[in-house]
Amino acid sequence: MTTPQVAIIGAGIAGLACAHALRQHGIESIIYEKSRGPGGRISSKRTDNSSVDLGAQYFTARDPGFAALALQAEQAGALARWEPNLAMIDDAGIQASPDTQTRWVGAPRMGAFAHYLARDLRIEPATRIGEHRSLTELRAQFTSVVIATPADQARALLPDLKVPAQAPCWAVWIDIDRDQPFDAAFVKTGPLRWIANDASKPGRATRRRWVLHATPSWSDTNLELSAEQVLLKLTEAAGGLLPNAFRVEDGHAHRWRYARPWDDQTAMADACIDAGDHLWVAGDYCMGGRVEGAWLSGVAAAQRIMR
Ligand code: FAD
Ligand code: NAD
């Protein structure tokens, strides 16, 4: 195996994209990841009987290169098209909100897409840079280093870095006993922003497993509540939105401390950051806080390295 020249910190979509783009040009890299596997905010959470997409729910692909990758992943069986019966809920009530957007989901769970991207890459799991190895060590060992973590974690490694703080998101899943008239809804009122029946996505084993995402402001205000309290409060909020009264059979809450930009329109001036001396910083927050943005930012970092 060729000796890696580039170290990448973080095996989320940005880090995986960077490693891929480098590989296509014959440059080997090694990705250091603090968790047990790849995916970051696109990974799925295991539950007793199955799994659930608690982070990214789906993604869209508007860039031609990213759209081509999505088609390849679909052919490999790692991605599928999700065609939910969509609603929009605001103070006026529930309205059907169909559209023609192609929404991609990992199959049979969101994390499958990250595993597909990671299949030929060198990843060192359970290795937190700043704890198990230092950034200084990596910079001494490798020709280039890419920090591909959420913005706040990048700032923990490089305190002078100018990056926007990211908003948190409390996410809940609940198994319920009643069918509902829609599969997912964009919510414009109250503590929730998004609700979706995970089971309506292709290949899922469960039947009525709803995912509830709180707004950035509700998540921030209630950041230190216990998972049990959040589960109760957000389930109650969902009870006010889902038309058919339900009983909860099982559920759990998860806190994403660094989930998204505070404002969906936020994007930085450049697709990645040149931190000097062959150190690069990439991540979704450079390109608007979506899966596609993370991919494009990682590819941009690889292109700068190759220049
Ligand atoms: P991450 O996925 O966060 O990857 C960074 C990686 O770095 C992580 O694996 C982390 O463990 C690792 N790491 C951090 N610090 C260190 C360290 N010191 N050493 C080693 N490793 C480290 N996007 C969409 O397009 N559609 C959606 O529907 C959608 N919904 C979302 C819902 C939620 C609740 C959340 C949280 C996000 C959602 N997003 C969505 C956003 C999307 O998930 C992200 O934009 C994208 O996954 C970010 O990828 P990334 O590689 O930039 O960062
Ligand atoms: P998209 O095109 O489906 O959605 C973009 C935005 O347009 C949505 O947030 C929604 O407000 C609106 N929208 C889209 N279709 C709609 C419809 N049929 N009816 C009513 N409103 C509709 O997807 P995208 O641009 O790829 O964005 C990805 C999604 O990821 C966004 O919804 C974003 O809010 C979400 N996200 C969530 C988090 C989190 O922490 N919860 C983090 C990052 C991104």
TrEMBL record:
Stored SUPFAM superfamilies: FAD/NAD(P)-binding domain
InterPro entries: FAD/NAD-bd_sf
Name used for this protein in its record: FAD-dependent oxidoreductase
Coiled coil: none
Organism: Litorivicinus lipolyticus
